[in-house]
Amino acid sequence: MEGLRQDDPPRIGEYVTLARLDPAARRGVPERRYLARSADGSRTVLIALPLQGADPGRWAAEAQWAAKLNQPGLWPVAQVGGSAAFPWLASPYRPVLPLPEALDACGGPLPEEAVRALGAALAESLASAHVLGVVHGGLCPAAVLLTAYGPLASCFGAVRAAAPEGAPRTGLPGVDAGCLAPELAAGGPVQASADVYALGAVLAYAATGHTVPERAEIPAGLRAPITACLSRDPAARPEPAQVLAELAPGAAWGTQNAGTEPVSLPGRVVAALSLQAAAVLAAELPEVR
To answer: Could you tell me the pTM of the whole model?
Structure first.
């Protein structure tokens, strides 16, 4: 969490903004995200807005699609509102850390066991979505939100929202170049294989602190699945179910995103989640004029 800046909206729809979820200096975040509360204090939510300068129409279209999805492992969108010029989406608040903030809390990359658990859950989420023809199209470190019950993938459709098919997507605000499959960088269609490339970049980041690490930087036990996901040839990338099987051998299908029991997280991440929850509970509504 970070305090609001002068250019942050004091109110979004019926909600009063309390704080930023992401540090203002953090790069590679596809949207602006705020913690906010209803004016009567009864509901606390996480709200997302398009980046300043982004196309609000494309962003709003992806938000509408996200609101219709009920896929396990995807961040749930409960409300879409605003206007054509100022769209927003909201979800009930739960203590959550974007993956970059989780690494900051840890003081460096996650332990291999935690990376495997993270990757298995994300791979299962993508596999479930792809079976139904749903391509996330926006996976990156900042899009992965860690909760006490496992990771959830947010920022649905961020690559599609950033630029239309046929337009180069490199150098665009909010698009993490390290997670952008080569075919997407060139303006190609957003397909399932690009989600797998992004998954490899996210796992590389969790294990090393970089989305484009040297191969030797990746822990030996994770090197094969991450390198396979990051193949420049889309046809050579594994299916998400194969990634799941390699990261969690013998795991029963449907167990990675059950979400009914707390998962094992590094102690410093658990502490950071607890501190955030306490800060949100203690936050008083600012006076909005």
So the answer is: 0.95
